[in-house]
Automatic annotation (TrEMBL):
Gene3D superfamilies per the UniProt record, alphabetical: P-loop containing nucleotide triphosphate hydrolases
InterPro entries: NACHT_NTPase (IPR007111), P-loop_NTPase (IPR027417), SNaCT5 (IPR055036)
Ranges for domain NACHT: 133-270
Protein's organism: Adhaeribacter soli
Pfam families in the cross-refs: NACHT, SNaCT5
UniProt protein name: NACHT domain-containing protein
All copies of domain Short NACHT-associated C-terminal, residue ranges: 466-654
Length: 667
């Protein structure tokens, strides 16, 4: 250990000593005592006697405390900010589903306001998944929870940024490296023993940032680790992802959008750390244009960008795309709000447009890989590759990277890694790349074919940047697939009410489901083999479990669900197209009621339109629909076939007219 590193650790430990000492005495020391016999067998008794392990844990906790307490914010590049100075308490919501002994379902909504973090926030659930869209403050929240956990001696926090995991670097490797950054004093088996004893809060941040390559291997390793160390509490964060369904035992929470006064509080907190003091002026402008900026104010990250854009040009953008356009211009031209807008010279010598051309190529290339964090050598190689695709761009990778970190700080350096300042920045410039590509239609069709969830947010930008192409490629193809499925499925099912058949057609669009009885005589290997053979994508980790009782003996039914990219995308865009809509279940006369299946146990049932399938019998068809309503992307709602059919016809007519106009050279 070099002298500066040792000094830094000592300084942190000195400052945080009153906070860390209770954690050591209450949580670490008792674990070592409980493992005394095992430790003696491992011939590491001397290290225990001289307090080596307590000291090393103190160093680890000091590093964790420092990392969680000091954060970087895109709008204040290079400035380390105390998290507690700018944290605006968030609230998270969840719907808790229960089934009583008679099969009666009930749903209660739980809201947790996170102005503190206590045992009652986590213990009733044990495992929590916080899933929400970009910019809702998930990563900031995990750091704040980490701080609260340390300051209250509630548990031993371990904060894992999941983007660091690879096929060759497991979650256990990551924990081992965090505890042993230099001297490798901890024995790997000892760490596992510690984890198995419990009293850890393991925070898994950014599931959606796992690399696409060999994603299923990483997910299986993560799942295995959680099962092995289930005496601990777990919190996972992610954007919505199909593969999250591998963690069906986590209670799902969503972050409640900021309310108006909470957004104003956040703006005032930014004012406290900025020399520009534009907060009150911004708030007054917002109050006169609430309808225009309502969507932006609900999202903490967008509130921060709004502050930055307003500080730059004293104006409020009209939409999300313009918003990101202006934040790019602000960062390129006068980026540093912590230095009164001081402009740093660009080493790359690229103009505003040239810089953007190279940046969007880099964004799309890295989005295709599903990566947001890189070693310096890797990101330099990626910049060189991107530059080779951009005719007329003359600069070197080192200078461009320096600009991305300093002059136009859309990237951040974290230890030995370099990452996008926020994933939504990568999403926006990836969408920008598609918008200006001569192969945009091919790219959009490729996105549909690959079904990578990471592109859902890119398409959310793209629909605003180029709705015409989006409509004639993405919406057209989705509606064609949906209408084809609706019209060709369940045509040989008899003695079932037509309304129920129509609901089933809608609910099963691009969605594959298996039923089996939980805790049945079937082995997990038998279920895995059946699922692997029946459902494409199962081996990619896209599976889920939802549990409902079988009234015959009050055991439970297990539904393995493959979440669909196309189905999710169709639900996502319907709000953007006025002529498309959902039909709410209440509109169909559906009522909450017990679900009673009449199915033999110890068998696996696939949801399909086979008339001989027991779940399609008169006794089970409607019950299956009721269960599928719970499992689908939008519970208690389904897509309107007549509206989809009408919109498809309109697009087909427009495409025919476009072709005719092109044939006549009518420009």
């Amino acid at each position: 250990m070099d002298e500066s590193t040792a000094t830094g650790i000592k300084d942190v430990l000195t400052i945080a000593k009153p906070i860390l000492d209770p954690v050591i005495s209450a949580l670490i020391a008792p674990k070592i005592e409980r493992l005394k016999a095992w430790i003696k067998k491992q011939d590491i008794k001397d290290k225990v006697i001289d307090n080596t392990f307590e000291n090393k844990f103190a160093e680890y906790l000091g590093r964790t405390y420092s990392k969680a307490k000091q954060i970087n914010i895109l709008i204040f590049p290079g400035l380390q900010i105390d998290l507690q100075e700018i944290y605006e308490p968030l609230s998270i919501n969840s719907k808790i589903k229960k089934v009583d002994s008679r099969g009666k379902r009930s749903i209660s909504e739980v809201t947790l306001r996170l102005d503190s973090f206590k045992e009652e926030h986590i213990d009733p659930f044990q495992k929590i998944l916080i899933s929400d869209s970009a910019g809702m403050g998930k990563s900031t929240l995990t750091k704040w929870i980490c701080l609260q956990t340390l300051e209250s001696s509630l548990a031993i926090p371990i904060l894992i940024e999941l983007r660091n995991l690879t096929v060759n670097h497991s979650i256990l490797d990551e924990i081992f490296d965090q505890l042993n950054p230099i001297d490798q004093i901890f024995d790997r088996d000892l760490i596992v023993k510690f984890l198995e004893l419990g009293q850890f809060l393991i925070i898994l941040d950014g599931f959606d940032e796992l690399p696409y390559e060999n994603n299923e291997v990483i997910i299986k390793d993560l799942r295995k680790f959680i099962d092995r160390t289930d005496e601990n509490w777990f919190i996972m964060t992610s954007r919505p992802e199909g593969a999250l369904s591998a963690f069906g035992d986590f209670q799902l929470f969503n972050i409640r959008p900021l309310r108006l006064q909470e957004a104003f509080n956040l703006i005032r907190k930014y004012d406290e750390v900025s020399p520009l003091k534009v907060g009150e002026s911004l708030i007054k402008n917002i109050e006169t244009r609430l309808t225009q900026v309502h969507e932006l104010l609900a999202n903490p990250f967008l509130v921060s960008l709004l502050y930055s854009v307003y500080a730059f040009n004293k104006d409020i953008p009209d939409d999300k795309v313009t918003f990101y356009e202006e934040i790019y211009s602000a960062l390129y031209k006068k980026h540093d709000l912590s230095k009164n807008g001081w402009t740093r010279p660009k080493k790359s010598k690229l103009s505003l447009l040239q810089f953007r051309i190279l940046l969007r190529q880099l964004a799309f290339d890295t989005a295709r890989k599903g990566s947001v964090s890189y070693s310096e050598s890797v990101i330099l190689d990626l910049i060189d590759i991107a530059k080779g695709k951009c005719a007329g761009i003359n600069t070197n990778a080192e200078d461009f990277l320096d600009d991305l970190l300093k002059a136009v700080p859309l990237f951040q350096r974290e230890g030995h890694k370099i990452k996008w300042g926020h994933k939504s920045i990568q999403d926006f410039f990836s969408s920008d790349f598609i918008t200006y590509s001569s192969k945009k239609e091919n790219i959009l069709n490729w996105i549909l074919e690959t079904k990578q969830d990471g592109f859902l947010n890119i398409l959310d930008f793209y629909i605003e940047q180029d709705f015409i192409t989006f409509r004639k490629v993405i919406i057209y193809q989705l509606l064609k697939d949906f209408v084809r499925h609706y019209e060709t499925s369940y045509n040989n099912i008899s003695q079932i009410p037509q309304d129920e058949i129509n609901i089933r057609r809608t609910l099963t669009y691009d969605l594959e489901v298996l039923f089996t009885k939980e805790n049945s005589a079937l082995s997990s290997d038998e279920i895995e083999d059946f699922a692997s053979n029946k459902i494409k994508g199962y081996n990619e980790g896209l599976k889920n479990g939802y549990y409902y009782p079988l009234p015959s003996n009050l055991t439970q039914l297990d539904a393995l669900v493959i979440n669909s990219f196309k189905s999710d995308l169709l639900h996502k865009i319907v709000v953007k197209v006025p002529t498309l809509k959902y039909l709410k279940i209440k509109d169909t006369g559906f009522e909450e009621r017990p679900i009673h299946f009449n199915l033999p146990v110890d068998q696996i049932y696939e949801v399909n339109d086979d008339p001989t399938n027991p779940i399609n019998s008169i006794l089970n068809f409607e019950e299956t629909n009721s269960l599928l309503m719970e499992l689908g992307p939008f519970a208690h709602a389904y897509f309107s076939y007549p509206d989809a059919k009408a919109e498809l016809r309109r697009i087909e007519l427009e495409l025919a007219n476009d072709k005719k106009a092109n044939d006549l050279n009518d420009f």
